[in-house]
UniProtKB/TrEMBL annotation:
Protein encoded by which gene: ftsY
Protein name: Signal recognition particle receptor FtsY
Family: Belongs to the GTP-binding SRP family. FtsY subfamily.
Species for this entry: Microvirgula aerodenitrificans
Molecular function, one GO term: GTP binding
Residues bound to GTP: 105-112, 186-190, 250-253
First and last residues shown, out of full length: 75 to 372 of 372
Main location as per UniProt: membrane
GO CC terms of this entry: cytoplasm; plasma membrane
Function noted in UniProt: Involved in targeting and insertion of nascent membrane proteins into the cytoplasmic membrane. Acts as a receptor for the complex formed by the signal recognition particle (SRP) and the ribosome-nascent chain (RNC). Interaction with SRP-RNC leads to the transfer of the RNC complex to the Sec translocase for insertion into the membrane, the hydrolysis of GTP by both Ffh and FtsY, and the dissociation of the SRP-FtsY complex into the individual components.
Its membrane topology: Peripheral membrane protein
Length: 298
């Protein structure tokens, strides 16, 4: 968790100082709850999660008969853990072979980088991985993936100027023929408001399903933590269009808006499979609610 703490240092710095002020001493009273509300809102937890946490903390305080501000921390940690706990779910890699994982997200969210990190991670679990260069709009994305594949001895299925659905279809066919365990399919960045691009990614999904029944088994939305609670809107829009099975929250290391996880948990609780807390391969890690809460407060 030291690495996680370092990765969350911006959120920790900001929240930690404010919490230290809150939990420092004195009585638990309405002023303190008001201050707590302000702190949760500045951490980008959003109105709904903040209200929910405040109500939950009040209940815990009254049940436990807490009086002193220093005791508030434990109640808040427990409330937050209850809220975000349901987001913690391991990715089930056994349920199909090949398991087809499709990535979605806006430009620059970290899709291509996360695919490289995930491929490495799956290889350490002795899985045979194949990549589909489904971002057919940006030559750079295709090159980035190809380079990554060469360095790590992973096949990358790609087509120059091709169509994303066709690339993914070919990749799945190749994966079946080669007894690959996991297909990671990149897709072009898009905003949920770009309706023609949303239609394109829906088509990728349909065509994956033609290549292999039940595919794509996972549709993961990659989110940049810097957008804070706006992540909720993005999650809802992509989920409504595609039916997401999981989330990856990247760049938590670069932001103090780590509270967005609470907002997502409150408003669209889709499993948060991985969080990104830095640039290296090890910095994409399975999400642990307990570790996350501990890293924020301790
Ligand atoms: P894509 O357009 O969604 O494929 O985004 P990329 O994978 O190209 O990533 C955009 C930038 O974000 C790159 O410079 C990555 O190195 C960077 N990046 C991705 N994930 C993380 C992370 O968890 N932490 C940090 N600090 N940078 C990240």
């Amino acid at each position: 968790t030291e690495r996680l703490k370092a990765g969350l240092s911006k959120t920790r710095d900001k929240l930690g100082k404010q919490f230290a002020g809150l939990f420092g001493g004195g009585k638990i009273d309405e002023d303190l709850y008001e201050e707590l509300e302000a702190v949760l809102l500045t951490a980008d937890m959003g109105v709904s999660a903040t209200q929910h946490l405040l109500d939950d903390v009040r209940k815990r305080v009254s049940l436990r008969g807490l009086k002193d501000a220093s005791e508030l921390k434990g109640a808040l940690k427990d409330a937050l853990l209850d809220l975000i706990g349901p987001l913690e779910k391991p990715l089930d890699l056994q349920r199909a072979a090949p398991l087809v994982i499709m990535m979605a997200g806006v430009n620059g969210a970290g899709k291509t980088t996360s695919i490289g990190k995930l491929a490495k991670y799956f290889q350490t679990l002795d899985k045979r991985v194949l990549l589909a260069a489904g971002d057919t709009f940006r030559a750079a994305a295709r090159e980035q993936l190809a380079e990554w594949g060469t360095r790590n001895n992973v096949t990358v299925v790609s087509q120059q100027g091709g169509d994303a659905a066709a690339v993914c279809y070919d990749a799945i066919q190749a994966a079946i023929a080669r007894k690959i365990d996991i297909v990671l399919a990149d897709t072009a960045g898009r905003l949920p408001t770009q309706l023609h691009l949303m239609e394109e990614i829906k088509k990728v999904k349909r065509v994956c399903n033609k290549a292999l029944p039940d595919a794509p088994h996972e549709i993961l939305l990659v989110l940049d933590a810097n957008i804070g609670q706006n992540a909720v809107q993005q999650v809802k829009a992509f989920d409504d269009a595609l039916g997401l099975t999981g989330l990856i929250l990247t760049k938590l290391d670069g932001t103090a808006k780590g509270g967005a996880i609470a907002a997502i948990a409150r408003e669209r609780p889709i499993p948060m499979y991985f969080i990104g807390v830095g640039e290296t391969l090890d910095d994409l890690r399975p999400f642990s609610a307990r570790d996350y809460v501990d890293a924020l407060f301790d």
